[in-house]
Write a structure and sequence with these properties.
Number of strands: 11
Strand content: over 45%
Radius of gyration: 13 Å
Shape: globular
Largest sheet: 7 strands, mixed
Structural class: mainly beta
Distance between the termini: 40 Å
Low-confidence stretches: none
Order of helices and strands: EEEEEEEEEEE
Length: 117
């Protein structure tokens, strides 16, 4: 059974940092592109970051570039998102996602990040 379980969210002040984690199981983690996607209250889904299957290439939305860092540990089947210099507009439910645009697309349940001003 495929599982993606996010953790690490919470309440943080502006300019603070958080590290999100996503524990993957039930599939060959290293074979998939992985993503972080967020949804702010009352808004649509926003792609945040991606990492390719080999982990050698990373991609970021302009809104988080220079502040967020995506990484993975294939030995532990873990995906991470280091978030620095957080802003109130980063407040959202953050999802770990496997294979956007693929037939075997899969989403975790999300972890809430709230940035207070």
């Amino acid at each position: 059974e495929v599982q993606l379980v996010e953790s690490g969210g919470g309440l943080v002040q502006t300019a603070g940092s958080l590290r999100l984690s996503c524990a993957a199981s039930g599939f060959t983690f290293s074979s998939y592109w992985m993503y972080w996607v967020r949804q702010a209250p009352g808004k649509g889904l926003e792609w945040v970051s991606a990492i390719n299957s080999g982990g050698g290439s990373t991609y970021y939305a302009d809104s988080v570039k220079g502040r967020f860092t995506i990484s993975q540990d294939n030995a532990k089947n873990m995906l991470y998102l280091q978030m620095n210099s957080l802003k109130p507009e980063d407040t959202a439910l953050y999802y770990c996602v496997r294979g956007i645009g693929k037939r075997d697309n899969y989403w975790g349940q999300g972890t809430q990040v709230t940035v207070s001003s």
